[in-house]
Amino acid sequence: MTTTSDTDLSKFMSYILRHAPEELGLALDDAGWTDYDVFSQRVCERIGVTDDDIIRVISTNSKKRFTLDGSRIRAAQGHSVGVDLAAQVAAATDVLYHGTTAEAWASIQTAGLKPMDRTHVHLSADLETARQVAGRRKGPHVLLMVPARQMEAKGYSFLRADNGVWLTANVPADFLSIVSEIA
Ligand code: HQG
Questions:
Q1: Which of 122, 141, 174 for a ligand 1 pocket mutation test, highest count of atoms within 8 Å of Cβ?
Q2: What is the CATH number of domain 6-75?
Q3: Under 8 Å between Cβ of 96 and 146
């Protein structure tokens, strides 16, 4: 019987596909894809779930964290291992948003937005998503506006992950402005 919750299974799958494919003896190609059948078999063996559990997590995941494409799977975004998601390079919408803590803002306002432990800075097309990302963290929040189209005109590039999250290498402080602060 499976005792792993869908949340735990989703976290394990993210861990493997974003950060540590070698834990299951897997390799990701340049764009982060790996063979689905081998992935499924190894996840099932390691944590005692079934292929049905994995398929359910892929299809019901609230943030569409996983992309199943024919015989291959990848994490839509969030990687710490270097993968090139550039297939989805897209013209950025006018403005993108980032939700963070007031504490982080203290450094961000001089250092800019950096990818920290991930390969990219994560941005969203709507304010509500940015608010939700910030809401996962304790303390006062800050919502930041990123003038994506203006940055693009200056040579910065943006790409849209499979699940709609926007990614970029970094956002210098000069481009950032506060939308609103939530106590
Ligand atoms: C902050 C979730 C100090 C940045 C969400 C953020 C998202 C700085 C934190 C996805 C900084 C990094 C990503 C600087 C950036 N000084 N702090 N110069 N530059 N930061 O988790 O955007 O559940 O890597 O503001 O929904 O919070 O994983 O990024 O607070 O899409 O699928 O450093 O994670 O998706 O944190 O979240 P993260 P994030 P998943």
A1: 122
A2: 1.10.10.970
A3: yes
Mean model confidence pLDDT for the chain: 90
Give the DSSP letter of residue 31.
Answer: T
Residue 154 pLDDT > 50: yes
- 10 Å CB burial of residue 179 (0-12, 13-18, 19+) is middle
Percent of the chain whose predicted confidence (pLDDT) is above 90: 70
Domain ranges of the chain: 6-75, 89-182
Report whether 159 contacts 132 (CB < 8 A).
no
Q: How far is the CA of 121 from the centre of ligand 1 (A)?
A: 7
DSSP at 7: H
pLDDT tens digit sequence for 2-34: 678 999 999 999 999 999 999 999 999 988 999
Predicted TM-score of the model (pTM): 0.75
Q: Has domain 89-182 been given CATH number 3.40.50.150?
A: no
| Spatial distance between the Cα atoms of 28 and 58, rounded to a whole number of angstroms | 18
Distance 167 CA to ligand 1 centre (A): 11
pLDDT digits (tens, 9 = 90+) for 42-52: 999 999 999 99
